[in-house]
C-alpha cells in the first residue's frame, strides 16, 4: 500500500512521534499552523470517516481518549483546542488514511 501514514506508522518515513500504543500513533505536524499542532492516527489503515463501523469504532473512540491525554500533556486541555478530521475531496481530505489534527495554543476563529 502506498499510504504515507502507513509508512510513518511502519517507520519507513520519519516523524516526530509524541505517542504510540497498539492502536494509535501521534506525531507533530510537519507544517504546523498553531503553536501546538499534532496528528493522531489509527495504526490500522482506515481510509476515512465513511469507513467507521462496528469492527473499528473502538479504535476511533481510543483516538479521542489519546487526544484528551495529550491535550493535558501539552497544556491545552483548559484553554481549549480544535480537533479536525477531513472526509473526502470536498472535505479537504488529501491523505486517505483517517487522521485527526489537534490544534491549540492559539485563539481559533470559525472559517
UniProtKB/TrEMBL annotation:
Gene3D superfamilies with a match to the protein in the record: HIT-like
- HIT domain: which residues? 4-111
Which residues act catalytically here?
99
Give the matching CDD domains: PKCI_related
Q: Where is this motif: Histidine triad motif?
A: 97-101
Any one Gene Ontology molecular-function term assigned to this protein's record: catalytic activity
Q: Name one Pfam family in it.
A: HIT
PANTHER family reported for this sequence: HISTIDINE TRIAD HIT PROTEIN
Q: What is this protein called?
A: Histidine triad domain protein
Q: Which organism is it from?
A: Finegoldia magna BVS033A4
